[in-house]
Amino acid sequence: MTPYKTILVHAGPPFDAGVGRVAVQLAQAFDARLVALACSGIEMLLAPGLIETGNETLARHMMDKIDSASGALEQLRELAGEAGISAEVRRLNGRSERELAEEMMFADLAVIGQALDRRRARNGWRTLPEMLLRNAARPVLVVPDGYAGATCGKCVLLAWDGSAAAARAVSAAIPLLARADVVEAVTYSTDDGFNVPGEIDSLATFLASHGVNARTRFLRARRNVDIGEAMLDHARASGSDLLVLGGYGHSRLRELILGSVSTTVMRNMKMPALFAR
Questions:
Q1: Quick one: average pLDDT of 209-225?
Q2: CA 55 – CA 178 distance, rounded (Å)
Q3: Which domain of life is it from (predicted)?
């Protein structure tokens, strides 16, 4: 597979050093173009007539949002400069999920923060990574809030469920898998009959054709809704610094009834995770 040539990073605001560090490390590793975006969101404040009325409070609020976005971009630029690489920085003024999804079409990989608001998540609101993964045409590497890990992609846990989304995640991750020291492909069997044991051997053969020596493992979860937690437990126990999995590869109805592995992982992970849909 062709290495990543363009890596997009969502710089904020607020700026998260863990997100920036992972993006810079990947850009260095692949000698890739690094494009940093920050969204001010001021377009949502530009209702007809508001600017014309000379509303000073609104004007100050808009300038604060512009300053926050510009500050996040400057922090990302400084982080890249310390690593000896340059970053193209761009401020966007629309809705984060819409503009980022559009910009992601022109990148090989997007690096974004977990941006977890647990209160909103409990009330059924989707997080920014969840919205991007459902709507964007590129793989998304999500970095946990405040991630302080020194590496990303040295020890990779690849979750396989036989879905098209999982296959796309594998393909998207090949450049990372080829550089990893350890790659473990796991699949799960559950009490409710979910089981894909035969395909994981074919997956290992496919990875080997790309120079990736992956060990395989079968794990068991009590029922399908617990697979996400079982996956995270195994990732922590094995010292993985990157998860690779398909995102939202099942119907919305099935997710509502049984729960979504993607959502469980995205909201509870402690290491970066690459998702593709």
A1: 83
A2: 55
A3: Bacteria
- CA dist 19 and 11 (Å) reads 8
Tokens of 198: 């035969």
Nearest Cα neighbor of 36 from 16, 68, 66, 12 is 12
Domains belonging to the chain, first-starting first, are 6-143 (3.40.50.620), 155-276 (3.40.50.620)
Confidence of residue 225 (pLDDT cuts 50, 70, 90): low
Mean pLDDT of 62-90: 96
Torsion of CA 244, 260, 230, 235, to 10 degrees: 20
pLDDT confidence band for 46 (50 / 70 / 90): confident
Mean of per-residue pLDDT scores for the chain: 86
What's at 196, amino acid-wise?
A: V
Report CA-CA distances (Å) from 34 to 25, 91, 151: 10, 14, 18
Edge-to-edge order in the sheet of strand 182-190: 88-92, 33-39, 6-12, 109-113, 140-143, 273-276, 242-246, 155-159, 182-190, 214-221
How many whole angstroms separate alpha carbon 154 and alpha carbon 183? 8
